[in-house]
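Page 37, continued from 36.
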């Protein structure tokens, strides 16, 4: 019995090991026989041999493939089978160990548009005399430091070139002279210390992010007559030249540099500037709106991450704030327009800082109702006085005519005042002679006083004191005259009351 059990266990083990060996064997066969897959995407035949650790390509491939995916393998050279393809539109050899020039026979691939050699081991980029049809070339993440000055003359159709993450510190001026269709050039994460001054009449987008660029010259962009955008973010620029010139440039990204000053000349030769990114620089002084006087198309400005000083509270705080935020706003993140120093306005917006300093009595939001109430009071006073004047004109004018002159002369001391102020001025005089507010309003206006002034002076029989009597000091001192006024005034009051009663 025990031997039976042992026997069956053994046979089960045998079966299992045989089956599993068969499976493994079959899997190995599959890998050997079909390491690459073919499929159709967007009507294009793909041959996918990527991520297989290949050192060479297997035989019997579908040579009609239009997209050839050979990325992330161990190729040290271009696999020999490539020569049998002719239809290829895109060749992806990224993530290999290539460091040899592209083979001549690629010249025959007249449909080849995309060549991806990203993440290989290229340290120089030198090309033989053949012409290639390539439009999109990705050479990013290599170790390229030397580029032959004829290198891209062999790719007359080149449209998009990615040279980011290499070790380039300069580019020959003529390197793109024959790449007449070059549109986008990515040079980010290299070792330029200056903006490279190459010629490319067709280039529209230049990316020079994280390149240690410390200098940009007035004519740095002179050879790029179609340039629309340049990204100079994350570099080491401390200043910008006056009159940096580009007639076409629309987007200028200078974020994360160390720039601390703008002048009226900085953007004066960029007439089409529309988007300006100055985030994360070292600006302290709030700009003047005149810095942007030559940029009528400016529509987007980024200012976040600068430590604005609102010291001195110059009027620029308000003017530039309005320039950047009024409709249509140029700064979308309005919260970025905040003061960093001095400490008593930290975190306040430029506008708040300005208003709090120059108009400290006003609330944060300048109250519209306060203004309305003030205007209302003024209008009310004016209307009231007009009505009263009308009433007085209706009532018999003769007795009044002389009285008003006396009163006004005494009150205002001959200094012409607006009517509202004259009402106010009467208040202190109430001690001597208390007219009610209504009475005060009913008093004749200042305007007419001087016409009959000589008559009054004659009455007083003090013609020589006429000038001196124009000061309030004199008036308050001359008690007798006050008495006179009081006696003269009574008829006016009586008369007025009668008029109102009617
Ligand atoms: C591939 O091309 C080479 C040379 O052009 C030729 O000798 C070879 O037979 C071709 N292989 C196939 C499978 O077509
Ligand atoms: C290029 O592609 C077209 C179709 O888009 C095709 O007719 C032509 O044969 C291809 N040329 C080569 C050399 O394969
Ligand atoms: C090239 O390949 C890399 C990695 O596979 C990929 O990230 C990149 O987008 C490709 N470039 C182009 C232009 O398709
Ligand atoms: C400018 O560059 C920075 C950093 O590269 C990026 O985050 C930002 O979006 C760019 N600005 C614009 C307006 O594209
Ligand atoms: C803040 O302090 C400055 C002096 O450093 C002073 O001139 C200014 O009036 C203060 N502003 C406010 C809002 O208190």
């Amino acid at each position: 019995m025990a031997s039976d059990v042992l026997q069956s266990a053994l046979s089960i083990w045998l079966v299992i090991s045989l089956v599993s060996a068969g499976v493994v064997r079959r899997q190995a066969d599959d890998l050997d026989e079909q390491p690459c897959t073919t499929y159709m995407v967007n009507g294009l035949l793909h041959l996918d041999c990527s991520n297989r650790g290949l050192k060479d390509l297997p035989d019997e491939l579908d040579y009609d493939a239009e997209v050839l995916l050979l990325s992330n393998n161990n190729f040290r050279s271009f696999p020999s089978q490539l020569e049998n393809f002719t239809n290829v539109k895109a060749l992806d050899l990224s993530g290999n160990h290539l460091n040899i020039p592209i083979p001549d026979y690629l010249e025959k691939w007249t449909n080849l548009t995309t060549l991806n050699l990203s993440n290989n081991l290229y340290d120089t980029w030198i090309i033989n005399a053949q012409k290639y049809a390539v439009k999109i070339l990705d050479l990013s993440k290599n170790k390229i430091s030397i580029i032959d000055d004829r290198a891209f003359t062999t790719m007359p159709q080149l449209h998009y070139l990615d040279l980011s993450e290499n070790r380039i510190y300069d580019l020959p001026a003529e390197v793109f002279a024959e790449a007449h269709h070059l549109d986008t050039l990515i040079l980010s994460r290299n070792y330029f210390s200056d903006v490279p001054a190459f010629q490319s009449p067709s280039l529209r987008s230049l990316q020079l992010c994280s390149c240690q660029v410390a200098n940009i010259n007035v004519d740095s962009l002179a050879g790029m007559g179609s340039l629309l955008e340049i990204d100079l973010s994350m570099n080491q620029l401390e200043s910008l030249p006056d009159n940096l010139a580009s007639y076409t440039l629309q987007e200028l990204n200078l974020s994360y540099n160390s720039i601390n000053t703008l002048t009226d000349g900085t953007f004066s030769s960029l007439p089409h500037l529309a988007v300006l990114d100055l985030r994360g620089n070292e600006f302290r002084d709030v700009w003047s709106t005149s810095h942007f006087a030559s940029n009528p198309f400016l529509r987007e400005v980024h200012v976040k991450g600068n430590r604005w000083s609102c010291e001195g509270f110059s009027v620029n705080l308000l003017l530039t704030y309005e320039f950047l935020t009024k409709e249509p706003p140029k700064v979308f993140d309005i919260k970025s327009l905040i003061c960093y120093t001095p400490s008593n306005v930290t975190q306040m917006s430029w506008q708040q800082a300005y208003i709090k300093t120059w108009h400290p009595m006003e609330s944060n939001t300048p109250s519209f109702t306060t203004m309305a109430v003030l205007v209302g009071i003024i209008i009310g006073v004016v209307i009231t006085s007009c009505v009263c004047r009308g009433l007085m004109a209706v009532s018999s004018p003769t007795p009044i005519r002389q009285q008003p002159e006396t009163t006004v002369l005494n009150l205002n001391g001959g200094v012409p005042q607006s009517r509202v102020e004259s009402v106010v001025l009467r208040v202190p005089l109430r001690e001597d002679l208390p007219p009610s507010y209504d009475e005060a309003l009913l008093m004749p206006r200042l305007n007419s006083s001087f016409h009959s002034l000589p008559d009054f002076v004659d009455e007083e029989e003090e013609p020589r004191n006429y000038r001196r009597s124009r000061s309030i000091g004199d008036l308050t001192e001359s008690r007798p005259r006050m008495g006179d006024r009081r006696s003269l005034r009574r008829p006016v009051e009586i008369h007025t009351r009668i008029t109102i009663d009617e």
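The CA atoms of residues 19 and 25 lie 10 Å apart. Flag for discussion at group meeting. The two ends are 142 Å apart (CA to CA).
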